[in-house]
Amino acid sequence: MAGEFKRDMNYIPTRITADGRDGYPVEPGRYRLVVARACPWANRSVIVRRLLGLEPVLSMGIAGPTHDERSWRFDLDPGGVDPVLGIERLQEAFLARYPDYDRGITVPAIVDIPTGQVVTNDFPQITLDFTTEWREHHRRGAPELYPPDLRAEIDEVNDAVFHDVNNGVYKAGMAGDQQAYEKAHAKLFARLDQLSERLAEQRYLVGDTITEADVHLFPTLVRFDAVYHGHFKCNRHKLAELPVLRDYTRDLFQTPGFGDTIHFPQIKEHYYVVHRFLNPSGIVPAGPDLSWLLEPHGRERLGGWPFGRGTPPGPPPESERVPAAA
């Protein structure tokens, strides 16, 4: 691996929509969202599903924290088989639709239960469609995560966050040479400094409530000290040493729908076990201490309401609860 890390963004573009224009209409109980607790991209879909209350109409399969060259495995389920799809590996759903599929088998993915075929793994579009296309099935009091009047600003913020932060940690961690690493590291922390300035004056990234922008940033920040600081060499500072971003992350972590989706043991196991080229021993670090996530954040002083005119989601289904995260 030489030079800069390049992420393959060529995902399956099929969409599940209210009008079914791609052949997949929104239907309660028809689809299964497949995720892994370890994956930050999948974490977005888990958060949005929780916030909007889509659990009763969209089931969720949870792959284990590690995978091999073939794909994510359902090794957390009895017999290593997803109880709804009846498959051992997510790869089977991709090959059911595309027998010659030769790209990455990624999460999140949505699978059509009747056919066992993958519908999409386009993670940026999945959460937007949960908000806009699944609206009929939102819970009472669901927040407006992608308000029309703020979409341009949300898109602009998300684009910068994706390139320099979400993907930026990977550009640093997966860099093939010193120059590429230092470039990515500098851009990452320059963007984090900019975000700190923005969030010093407002509680959330765009507007005065939680939006897609916060959903995009949180999964990277909450994983920062546990994996990216050490494993990916993003070590100018720990997040716990950046007061504004630390408290912003605390605020979201303590908000229903965010922290209750985080499983730190699986997150650490994934990165430190799968990335043997970075961690040949496969040893998973015992630390760091993440109890600071549960300390007071004090960001109420900035105003704003997490759910706007809406309400917090209820507790997650018993089968989807994670252990105390910090």
Which helices and strands appear, and what pairs or packs with what?
Elements lengths: L30 E6 L3 H13 L6 E5 L27 H7 L11 E4 L4 E4 L2 H10 L18 H16 L1 H6 L4 H22 L12 H17 L14 H11 L10 H11 L52
Parallel strand pairs: 1-2
Antiparallel strand pairs: 1-3, 3-4
Keywords: Oxidoreductase
EC number: 1.8.5.-
Protein name: Glutathione S-transferase family protein
Work out the radius of gyration: 19 Å
User: What summary fits the major beta sheet?
Assistant: 4 strands, mixed
CATH class category of the largest domain = Mainly Alpha
Count of spatially separate domains = 2
Order of helices and strands: EHEHEEHHHHHHH
Question: How confident overall, as mean pLDDT?
Answer: 96
CATH fold type of the largest domain: Glutathione S-transferase Yfyf (Class Pi), Chain A, domain 2
Which percent bin holds the helix content? 25-40%
- Principal-axis shape: globular
**Tally of helical segments:** 9
Order of strands in the sheet with most strands: 2-1-3-4
Proportion of residues in extended strands: 5-15%
Domain GST C-terminal: 147-274
EC number: 1.8.5.-
GO molecular function, one term: oxidoreductase activity
InterPro entries: Glutathione-S-Trfase_C-like, Glutathione-S-Trfase_C_sf, Glutathione_S-Trfase, GST_Omega-like_C, GST_Omega/GSH
Short description:
By secondary structure, this protein is mostly helical.
Describe it.
By secondary structure, the chain is mostly helical. The protein is built from 9 helices and 4 strands. The chain has a 4-stranded mixed sheet with strand order 2-1-3-4. Helix 1 links the parallel strand 1 (31-36) and strand 2 (59-63). The two termini are 35 Å apart.
